[in-house]
Amino acid sequence: MKKKFYKIILLFLFALPFNSYAQFPVEEEDEYYEKEWAFGVMMNTYGGFIGGVSIRHARNYFYRHKIEQSLGQGSGKTKVSTGTVGKIEREGKYHSFNLEILSIRHPKEQKRAASPTGDGVVYGKMNRLYAIRPMFGKEWILFKKARKQGVQVNVIGSAGPSIGVIVPYLVKYNKDGTTQSAQFDQDDYLTNFTSILGTASFGEALSKASVTPGLAFKASLSFEFGMSKRSITGIEAGIIGDVYAKKVKIMATDDNRNFYSAMFLTFFFGSRK
């Protein structure tokens, strides 16, 4: 999975720049944008083809000041508003907020067919782990896109809390002619159930979920392309990490951990002004 994932990243990183250079001569550059919204679908080496979704909002740095306007000579009344005086350091620097929801899988997870139903079951898995990550960070434009073509490259760094939602991984099994559901047992997880039929419903498992606090970080490069000034399309690639206050028992084995890291690739689209 990881080798295939790395190949996909390298393919996009090499293909996008060459695609932009093959277009018509560049025109005068656009003005720097003030803010943008982007929605993304993520692949990552935690496992799974679609590993999560994200929403990102970025806003340019500004100094703020009060603007007083008279409402008429002799009225003695003024209207007070705020305005922009100047931009901090340089125009290509942005505050950003990211909200990501992703699934974290243990490296040793392997799905096998349950007998006799043939449903896929990860033997030895005790819990699913989902990370809700509201993160704050900064973005810097390295290479700016021209007006109607080219690739814009941004550096993104973010950090914030990671809310770990631990959902029990319940399997259905046959006991004395009745169907029951339970987690794998940590002491004897491979032979505990005589006849596994498949996994229980996600709704049943979600009702028994718990939460653990943690911290998250992300460092990445985004490659934006497209013809429109107001819409954006591109990819973001980099590393993500989550560290929790305690070990999360994803598997019934002894190698569970409280820190997980992965490479990721996000396909995003959105708008700006």
TrEMBL record:
Protein origin, superkingdom: Bacteria
Signal sequence interval, chain numbering: 1-22
Keywords carried by this UniProt record: Membrane, Signal, Transmembrane, Transmembrane helix
Annotated transmembrane regions: 38-55
Protein name: Outer membrane protein beta-barrel domain-containing protein
